[in-house]
């Protein structure tokens, strides 16, 4: 664990550095408040800071105040060192945002105990952050395939539509539905069905460029958003690459299922369709692809009714 020591008094600074290094901490040293503030602004700054109260340039308590004014940075646990033992100073330090304080002179055991307390708080905080991140992933991803889920892809669609509008580009919505998927589940069992879904999802993700997003909408239906699609032909080309790719996927031995996919795609030009309309248009195209025999791509749109199979 990295710890910042900010102390202007050299003997005290060296002593702190020697103790912490001996106890296995990785130490970053600052000789005054300004230097400490610079260190704390760096990416990957230490999460625990020992700040001396009285320092030239900027006092420890000011460094602490600035730390607490930042909203979008990881929390830094502050242990304030002070030789003043007047109650009023300690109150001021805590109000400035210090988590703990030590009154000089202190001995090594005292320092170690206070560092352990700080580390415990930071560990708990890290667990909370990890739990929150895991919840966020759970709320936005399909657990089976790891793709975006239904709710998340609609948020992304809205965001990408706004971006397309601003940049006057167009966005492709591709709906892909595996053909006769129920038969796969019925014939080979649900484990195989799940395996197929996972493999198809992995293939879709591989086929994406940097500006595309892929979701499992539920069941055997997938949705791909492709940004900056220059023409209907370009969208059709992408959809066809997906369709042919899925048909070529292999899921094991000779008896294993072969899978095909029907695709409906629509391109949304700036100022034209709303998110819902783009989805509906792609969905209608998908319906036509299914109706007309499956394993085919249908481009939806008032003028463009290109079809490939
Ligand atoms: Mg000092």
Could you outline the blueprint of secondary structure elements for this entry?
Elements: E1 2-6, H1 10-22, E2 26-30, H2 33-41, E3 48-52, H3 60-69, E4 77-82, H4 87-95, E5 100-103, H5 108-140, H6 150-167, E6 171-178, H7 181-188, H8 190-207, E7 212-218, E8 221-226, H9 232-248, E9 261-268, H10 275-291, E10 297-300, E11 307-308
Bound molecules: magnesium ion.
The site of magnesium ion has 5 residues, from loops.
Which short descriptors sum up this protein?
10 helices, Alpha-Beta Plaits, disordered C terminus, Rossmann fold, 2 domains, five-stranded parallel sheet, six-stranded mixed sheet, 309 residues, binds magnesium ion, elongated, alpha/beta, 49% helix
Can you offer a commentary on this structure?
The chain has 309 residues and is α/β, with parallel strands linked by helices. It has two domains: 2-139, 3-Layer(aba) Sandwich (Rossmann fold); 150-308, Alpha-Beta Plaits, CATH 3.30.70.270. The protein has helices at 10-22, 33-41, 60-69, 87-95, 108-140, 150-167, 181-188, 190-207, 232-248, 275-291, and strands spanning 2-6, 26-30, 48-52, 77-82, 100-103, 171-178, 212-218, 221-226, 261-268, 297-300, 307-308. The chain has a six-stranded mixed beta sheet, sandwiched between helices. The chain has a five-stranded parallel beta sheet with strand order 2-1-3-4-5, with helices on both faces. β10 (297-300) and β11 (307-308) form a beta hairpin. The chain is elongated and about 85 Å long. The two termini are 59 Å apart. It binds magnesium ion. Magnesium ion is lined by residues 8-9, 52, 54-55.
């Amino acid at each position: 664990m990295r710890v910042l020591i900010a102390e202007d008094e050299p003997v005290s600074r060296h002593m702190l550095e020697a103790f912490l290094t001996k106890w296995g901490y990785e130490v970053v040293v600052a000789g005054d408040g300004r230097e400490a503030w610079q260190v704390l602004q760096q990416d990957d700054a230490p999460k625990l800071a020992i700040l001396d109260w009285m320092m030239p340039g900027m006092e420890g308590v000011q460094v602490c105040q600035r730390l607490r004014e930042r909203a979008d940075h990881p929390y830094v646990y502050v242990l304030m060192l002070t030789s003043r033992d007047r109650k009023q100073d300690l109150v001021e330090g805590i109000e400035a945002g210090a988590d703990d304080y030590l009154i000089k002179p202190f001995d090594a055991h005292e320092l170690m105990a206070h560092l352990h307390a700080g580390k415990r708080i930071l560990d708990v905080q890290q667990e909370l952050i990890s739990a929150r991140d895991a919840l966020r992933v759970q709320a936005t991803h399909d657990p089976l395939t790891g793709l975006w889920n239904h709710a998340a892809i609609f948020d992304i669609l809205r965001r990408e539509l706004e971006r397309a509008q601003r940049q006057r580009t167009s966005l492709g919505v591709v709906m892909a539905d595996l053909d006769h998927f129920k038969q796969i589940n019925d014939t080979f069992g649900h484990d195989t069905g799940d395996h197929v879904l996972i493999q198809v999802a992995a293939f879709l993700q591989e086929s994406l460029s940097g500006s595309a997003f892929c979701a499992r909408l539920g069941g055997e239906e997938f949705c791909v958003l492709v940004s900056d699609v220059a023409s209907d032909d370009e969208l059709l080309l992408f959809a066809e690459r997906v369709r042919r790719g899925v048909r070529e996927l292999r899921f094991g031995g000779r008896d294993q299922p072969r899978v095909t996919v029907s695709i409906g795609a629509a391109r949304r030009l700036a100022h034209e369709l709303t998110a819902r309309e783009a989805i509906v248009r792609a969905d209608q195209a998908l319906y036509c692809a299914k109706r007309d025999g499956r394993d085919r791509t249908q481009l939806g749109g008032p003028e463009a009714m290109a079809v490939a199979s």
